[in-house]
Hints:
It comes from Shewanella dokdonensis. The chain is mostly helical.
Amino acid sequence: MNRLQLQVILAAVDKVTAPLKKMRGAGLNTQQAFKETRAKVKQLEQQTRQVQGYRNTAKQLGMTSVQLKDARDQMARLAQEMKASTAPSKTLTRSYAAAQREAVRLKTQQQQLAISQQRQRTALREAGIDTRHLSRYQRELSASLARANDQLKQQKDRLAQLSAQQKSLTLRASN
């Protein structure tokens, strides 16, 4: 084989492999962007869970506080009844004891929820989320998550397209 024939063959090989190399590079770039976007989506989902957890804890804390107030009111009412009676009945005494246990249980639950809420507030603050503007942040978070998911879908479609093109070029190159 002479030098000219070798140059022609090498030029033909370069002509066939150049698009494959270009597609491989594009595929790698798209894959990297896909991984970065997927990581961003996971981060946004984590923040969404944190915000939702904080909101749920705040809601539970509010409900528990109302229940505790009601339990204390009932305890006070039963205490008044017992005080007014010269010999309180066993039923009244049992009701008072049950109301007292319930108030203690609710007070403990309220304290645990308050501690949990404070920890969540601190974690949110460390993540750069101000709990005073939670509604606005949650809207922004939802919008960011929707955009990231759209971007992820586009990148996934682009990867599928590049894969199909690469298979097509490989088949053509082998024929």
